């Protein structure tokens, strides 16, 4: 885990920012994003386990469902959005259902379709944990992304440049 007192100016130059490489700017930015995601996931794992008592993969399912209407999503769509095999997702949904965090129901008119949605318990737990989770994400990103890394991210997400100027 990164040292919370580390000075961001001490971060090394982002290698993906150097000109003359083989990769286009967007691909270099994507590599920076992957590194940042890895750092966030590493720090989030323990907070998610402590606050929600679920695995990181189960947490991703809860987050996806939290951004959907109360009716939920079809399991095939959840698997597609998270890039997970359907068999693995079935196991994770069963764990979440056993914990009282999701419901499963058949889709009307489609015998094979299953829709999953958050329970009120899951919504309450996510609301209660959201502050600590957001702080964990911010802290993890601030420890792996200095000015050069943020510039690399803007190559992939140009709208970040506007936000930085407004802040």
Keywords for this entry:
167 residues, globular, MarR/SlyA-like, MarR family transcriptional regulator, mainly alpha, TFIIIC_Bblock-bd, Arc Repressor Mutant, subunit A, 3-stranded antiparallel beta sheet
Record the SSE blueprint.
Elements: H1 25-52, H2 56-66, E1 73-74, H3 75-82, H4 86-98, E2 102-107, E3 110-118, H5 120-144, H6 147-156, H7 159-166
Antiparallel strand pairs: 1-3, 2-3
Please give a structural write-up.
The protein is mostly helical. It has one domain: Arc Repressor Mutant, subunit A, CATH 1.10.10. The protein has seven helices and three strands. The protein has helices at 25-52, 56-66, 75-82, 86-98, 120-144, 147-156, 159-166; strands at 73-74, 102-107, 110-118. Strands 1-3-2 form a three-stranded antiparallel beta sheet. Strand 2 (102-107) and strand 3 (110-118) form a beta hairpin. Helix 1 (25-52) packs across helix 5 and helix 1 (25-52) packs across helix 6 (147-156). The longest helix has 28 residues, at 25-52. It starts with 24 loop residues before the first helix and ends with a helix. Residues 4-9 have low confidence and may be disordered.
The portion of residues assigned to helices is 55-70%
Q: How much strand?
A: 5-15%
What is the name of the CATH superfamily?
A: Winged helix-like DNA-binding domain superfamily/Winged helix DNA-binding domain
Number of helices: 7
Mean pLDDT: 81
- Cα-atom radius of gyration: 19 Å
The 3D shape can be described as globular
What is the structural class?
Answer: mainly alpha
Quaternary status: single chain
Poorly predicted runs: 4-9
Q: What is the β-strand count?
A: 3
